[in-house]
Amino acid sequence: MSFQKFYTTFGLFLTVPVIFTATAFAQNQRPAPKPTPTMVIDREVKPVPVAAGNNLFCAGYVESAPVNTANKVIGAQDEKDQHTFTEGNYIYVNVGANRGAKAGDMYSVIRPRGKVETRWTKKKNLGFYVQEVGAVELVAVKNDYSVARVKTSCESMLLGDLLQPLPDRVSPVSKQRAEMDLFADSTGKSSGKIFMARDGQELLASETVVYIDLGAEDNVSIGDYLTIYRRLGTGNIIDSEPQESVSARDEGFQSDEYRGGKFSNQAARKSGDTARGRVVTTKEAKKGRPALRRVLGEMVILNVRQRTATAIITRSASEIHTGDSVELQ
Fold it and tell me: CA angle 84-87-89, nearest 5°?
């Protein structure tokens, strides 16, 4: 074997271990791979209030008992420049040290609006509507009056608005609910009507504050769930119910020559055992059927008075109107 051939063969044999050793060394000097981040998901369901802010503290109510009218708003720092007052404004109230007031005291501001008169309930003398417009805090107390700062306002405050003790109002917690049963049977429990909604609304949906004619005298409580329903076949805004149960003869889609006439696919049914009577009307078809109802949604009671309660609609499956019925679940 020639020297050149021996060197090439043997030299290659010697260099291979060196190459592998260097590779192993390089691998040992590499930094350890960083651990893959792991996402931790908190599956615990946090309790969620059904109402907060404006919907809780400015929901209003219908009261049958007299309210205290002694404490009221008597002036404002900028009353020459403005007639309504909102968050951050300074107002004067006739509550002073002579009535035990002290700096830091909080008051709810209300505005009675008048007696409730509605055709949507059979109850008499529900009471008068009280609008809750916000809350104020006393910042400077004098002997016979105080300066108050408007902390929150849901509506503009006016001179003459009344001060009441700040209610200790806590929202019911939203419960995990099954899918709404649109064909739920009646529970047979207390039932009433939505006789009014906040701000005079008539077409209602989720998150709308409403007033119902069920109160403490009907054994309802804060946090109770009620089903909203309507007697089937009633409550449409436009009465579009046809006279005949079904009819396509006068729809205008058929030609004069090939019209289906009384044997059209949508022709109305004739009465009698041999179909010789008059056309069956919708009213006749509904005659004698049981009291069917249409489930529209669900609500939760926020505030209970003697004869009425304030509630918030939490779920809706269809349009809801003032005058719709409610039933305790």
Answer: 65
Give me the phi and psi of 232, to 5 degrees please: -60, 135
Instruction: State how far the Cα of 242 lies from the Cα of 281, in Å rounded to an integer.
Output: 8
CB neighbours of 91 closer than 8 A, spacing ≥ 6?
Answer: 73, 75, 76, 77, 85, 136, 147, 148, 149, 150, 157
Structure tokens given for 119: 């055709």
Separation of alpha carbons 230 and 260, rounded Å: 37
Q: Are 228 and 325 within 8 A, CB to CB?
A: yes
Question: What is the distance between the terminal CA atoms of the chain, rounded to a whole angstrom?
Answer: 104
Q: Express each pLDDT in 225-271 by its tens digit.
A: 999 999 998 876 655 555 555 554 455 555 666 655 666 666 778 88
CA-wise closest residue to 151 among 164, 170, 133: 133
Q: For 251, what's the count of Cα atoms within 13 Å in the CB-facing half-sphere?
A: 17
Other beta carbons within 10 angstroms of residue 166's beta carbon come to 16
β-bridge pairing 73-76 and 128-141: unpaired
Alpha-carbon span 190 to 186, nearest angstrom:
10
0.85 exceeded by the pTM?
A: no
- Cβ neighbours of residue 193 under 8 Å, at least 6 residues apart? 120, 121, 212, 213, 323, 324, 325, 326
Confidence check: pLDDT of 20 > 70: no
Helices and strands (H, E) in the chain, number of each type: 3, 15
